[in-house]
Amino acid sequence: MTSQPVAGPSHPRRHKKSKKDPKTLVRSTKAKALSESQRIDVLERQAMEFASIIVEAPESLKAFADLPISENTKRGLKKAFFVNMTDIQTQSIPVSLKGKDVLGAARTGSGKTLAFLVPVLEVLYRQRWGPMDGLGALIISPTRELAVQIFEVLRSIGGYHSFSAGLVIGGKNLKDERERLSRMNILVATPGRLLQHMDQTFGFESDNLKLLVLDEADRILDMGFSRTLSALLSHLPKPRQTLLFSATQTRSVKDLARLSLQNPVSIGVNAADDPSASSIPTNLEQHYLVCTLDQKLSILWSFIKSHLQSKIIVFASSCKQVRFMFETFCKMHPGMPLIHLHGKQKQTTRLSMYDKFTQSKHAVLFATDIAARGLDFPSVDWVLQLDAPEDADTYVHRVGRTARYESKGKGLLFLMPSEEEGMLAALKTKGIEVQKIKVKPSKQQDIRNQLQKLAFQEPEIKYLGQRAFVSYLRSVYLHKDKSIFKLAELPANEFAESLGLPGAPKIKFLSKEVAKEKKNADRRVDTAKQQALQEKHVEREDEDEDEDESSDDSDNGGVRTKYDRMFERKNQDVLSQHYSKLIEQDVASDEDDFITLKRADHDLTEAPLREVALENLSKRKQKLGNAKRTVLLNAPATKKIVFDDSGVGREADEVANAEDWVKEKGGIEGVVEEGNQYAETERGKMKNADVVDKQEAREKKKEKKRKRKEREKMALEGGGELGAHAESPLSDDGYVSPEFDLSSDTEQEESRPAKRSKVARSQPSVLEDEEELALALLRRV
């Protein structure tokens, strides 16, 4: 960097020093560039030689300063207080610096994050990666919290490099990420949001990618990201270096390694595959206790009350359980901070909860398995697994949140009697031995009454309890290993009572399961037994079934279909008769009658029609029909009563004959005269009613006008404005038009005759005008 010369005789040395030959400056710049290039070449040569040396004497490598890495990375590690390396770092970093693919497996808390972050920085540094080169390294993490943690470690150790790094996770502004994505050299991302950017963000390219890191690969596959991960790998270039790390090596991880890695170097995989070699830290104490489902919350509350100076993580199987425990325990005030973390929270809330628990010395974190992988919570004393893990690998990851690095920790697993044998056998296959402990009755507190009181006082707590109940049973129902998780053996009513609920909520999937089991049981019944049950059902439904028909069915092999039972029901009269006609016809007929329909011969001459009909009915229906008929025939005869206009009732007369009525009135002329008299009478009634209505309308109009004048007068005296919302003790419920003025013409309106112009008549403004126009029209008529 050159500086401008300073004028004046008082600074001769500075003036002399600032004068440099341009050729000298160019030579010094070239020397610096050459020295930087030489240093990179030396580091590459040392890395190639270093890997073979470490294979021969691995115990000679202990500190990061002994690695063939750049000074910028060493300064960053020293600033972040990373001095000595762990076993996984000692074995994997030299191989990664050599440019080979790595398949790494190590126990939780062994420092896998630095095992791939140091090679990321060094690979880009040796490639002389710049801002215009685009994306050079990609790190994929299963959860947002783990991605944030990796990004923070990357910032702490890579501060002396000039690379740009970015974090791409769900829950953040997609637009802001798109604007900065094309300028990133190192990217830490979750699978879903990364694939979204690859498919939708214009300008985001990964053609120059040099290094791909898959952290917690087994968890990525378990969370349902297998298709997403396959799509991501199809976007990435094949000539790249890949580092795959996981605490457990499953079959799906090995399949992924065969697809994405080329001749990888396996580190720690043999130990992970060996059942006798445990991936549990040696300084971890493991315990389990056996309790019923309805005792879990009481024991958990008692444990928290007796460990108020500890840092505890409580794992549950569903988000709704986590929220229920958090809300209820907060209202019960245990005496220490409570925090909850689950996947239904917003991203900002999840990050704040993560930071809050990380910085706390004494706290309880209620969490789902979202916090079981990779997260580094410092100084965790206890890990409680309130609900049993789905498999041994999940157990390993859960208890791995404590006893990290060289610190000590304890784990406690809650098991029900139906889960004890199967879970212990599954853990034993992984070489995990767990010691059984018992709860002291003197220190156990029963909180069922407190939870019932909370559910009674606050409907929200009751609602959360219902959702927690359903979600737990659903989680047990969806578990794959039915030898451990037995839904039928769960005490549902007692569990609902322990949550404070008055009764067990109805669960749809359980009712479907019961119906399915019943259906399968019916299918497994023997054919003969099923036939007997059907015959009993038919006899119970229709006691008087014809014996001849049943004998015919037995002659035909005893096979009865649902159509036979349907058409035998007596409430299907039309269809059953038609069906019986069809099946009772003789099939074997002459050739001449091939198309002719044989009709049944209904001989009704020997007996009355009613007797023939009664013969086809059962005795019960015959008795019922006779009883109804008797009631109808013996019922007293009733007469029709009609009411006149005044409400007086009278007996209805029989309808008179029209001819007799005309003769009685004296012919057609008499009938017309009587009709005219009736019309004249009704016309007089209408005129009288019209006069009364007009008088009432005039009085109503005068009263409204008087009230309006009073309101105007009050408004003028008060100096206010008269509007549609003016309040007055004289106001009524009628409609008052707000469209009027307070001019001097109001006094002339009283003396003006009640005449309206044609325009006023055709355009009424208020209700009074409409009434007056209607009256005027009536007068014309």
Automatic annotation (TrEMBL):
Q: What is its EC number?
A: 3.6.4.13
Q: Which family does it belong to?
A: Belongs to the DEAD box helicase family.
Q: Say which species the protein is native to.
A: Lentinula guzmanii
Please give the residue ranges the record annotates as the region Disordered. Answer: 1-31, 520-563, 663-770
Gene Ontology process terms (BP) = rRNA processing
Q: Where in the cell is it found?
A: Nucleus, Nucleolus
- In the UniProt entry, what is the domain comment? The Q motif is unique to and characteristic of the DEAD box family of RNA helicases and controls ATP binding and hydrolysis.
The record's CDD domains line, in alphabetical order, gives: DEADc_DDX10 (cd17941), SF2_C_DEAD (cd18787)
GO cellular component term, pick one = nucleolus
Stretches with biased composition (Acidic residues): 541-555
* Residues of the Helicase ATP-binding domain: 93-267
The signal peptide, as residue positions, is none
Q: Which UniProt keywords are given for this protein, alphabetically ordered? A: ATP-binding, Helicase, Hydrolase, Nucleotide-binding, Ribosome biogenesis, RNA-binding, rRNA processing
Record protein name field: ATP-dependent RNA helicase
Motif segment (Q motif): 62-90
